[in-house]
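task queued by scheduler; priority normal; single chain, no ligands, no partner chains; default sampling; output format set to structure tokens
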Amino acid sequence: CHSVFGEVIRGIEVVDSIANVKVAAKNRPIEDVVISTIEIVKKGKEAKKFDAIKVMTAYFDEEKEEEKKQLALAEEAKKTEAAFAAETAEQIKKAETLPSGLKVLVLNEGTGKKPRIGQKALVNYAGWLSNGTLFDTTMEDVAKKFGQYDIIYKMHGNDLSPYPMEYSPESRLTAGFKE
């Protein structure tokens, strides 16, 4: 976002037409908006030293680089999702099916001290759809790896802390679901 402090002396209809163009993702115009000519009157020593073309060129170069980075990250996340979906499909074949239909596969059984019934435990978790899409987690590294960090971080109120859960046979991580 750029702020220009000044006054439009002539051509406010042009300013209005720019403000009303149709936009797509990231508030970018669907069709390019091109300014054919512009006259900038600089008043004061600092204003006269300011090189708008240099500043704007640098800004747009940085924007293009950031966009390339984001596209590369999204592509990497898609590959990660596909690999994870394939790995999960193999794990499902090995999983124990409980009476409810829930499938359970213990990948790494802990050896630490178990909490007593009624005690609180802090639980890190992650949930995926069968196609490998991560839909929730408390783990920052997982959210970043699957390209969902910004969305999940905001969803959790900017706090990816472990989920406090009471340890008991009646405990459930998701409301309404109990195995």
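post-processing summary
- The radius of gyration is 26 Å.
- The mean pLDDT is 85.
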